[in-house]
Amino acid sequence: MQFGVAPKARLMPRSKPRKEAMIGSVLNRESTADLLTSLFREKFRTKVHICFAPGRVNLIGEHTDYNDGFVMPAAIGFYTWVAAGRRQDRELRAYSGLYDEKVTLSLDELSGPPRRHWSDFFRGVAATLQEAGHNLAGANLVIHGEVPVGAGLSSSASLEVALALALTRLSGLALSRLELVKLCQRAEHEYVGTRCGIMDQFVASFGAAGHALMLDCRSLEYQLLPVPEDLRLVVCNSMVRHELASGEYNLRRHDCETGIKLLHAHLPEMRALRDIEIQDLERYKHVLPEQVYHRCRHVVTENRRVLKAASALETKDAALFGQLMYQSHASLRDDYEVSCKELDLLVELASHEAGVYGARMTGGGFGGCTVNLVRAECAALFQAHIAQTYRKETGIAPAVYICEAAQGAEAWPHQGSTPV
Ligand code: GAF
Fold first, then answer.
1. CA neighbor of 153 nearest in space, from 210, 189, 114, 203
2. Residue ranges for the chain with pLDDT beneath 70
3. Hey, whose CA ends up nearest to atom 9 of ligand 1?
């Protein structure tokens, strides 16, 4: 992966500028793991386990996961790292480099509603694991995040999955990856307050280098589809963060649930929006409030686009894939209303650039990033040019990352190799 702009996450408090500067600029996982190990030992002096999980970009299939539909994300080479060491008591002590803050929690007092603090993630993951009957050991944790926060690249799921992996390994628990993914999703629902689907946690865990992951969110069967080597996934960060995003997200989900309830009276076989065709929706349009109809139309048409996009990827038809991306963006903008003017502008600007097959907003929306399918040899020029034109139009300097699909969560192989 090449970084257009180095991620801003800091690992160390301000009093240790040298190592802090080094870790902010490392470009390979080996060095990050070594630095994290030595920093962990400075703080805690115990044997360390290191786990990491990636962020993601969604190529197509937005807001379909919680409608039992299809999605096609890819993991990207920005990771959240968790260094963990076992404690003899029942405490969890975590230090976040990003927030330069330490939090201590008791494993026996994890319950409670979202507190709107980063510690909700590790409180939630630990609580959910324990509620599912997995007894955790006390732990010291150092968290280092490379995934840009609030950019729609799923920093939350990468943190949850990395934490869950670290806490379970440390406690000697053997959970299946799928169980771990589902528990992380539940942690986000109950302890963070976003009723997310399963896409982000799933790809953070099951993503594979060089591949997009086509997931059926009902059966949870997935297929790894190679991304042709002559293509790049270029991610443009609009640098716009929408503070109300999780409230709006839950509202969209609620609209879909209203649609299902009303349509179900006429289509009793239907369990989710995944089960109907556009003709069914048009036929019963009159039973739906206008806004609910538009939300449903997005989901129904988006599911069809994902299926077509999977075939297009298999036949290496980048032009068709790109057209489906533009259509997806228009539907998210007009029917689902989760785009914003900066994302629309980035898509519009991309459509005039050489070597671009398609562009769309990616992730939950209301700000964040676009994903662009670009011919490899045009990617660097695209990166420079779109940054320039977006800045000229908005006064905002975007971050533009040229990505390749990356590996999902892993435990660092050399963990504990030199125990203290
Ligand atoms: C967020 C959610 F976490 C995902 O589950 C998904 O719904 C996505 O928004 C929209 O496609 O990333």
1. 203
2. 1-27, 242-245, 414-420
3. 364
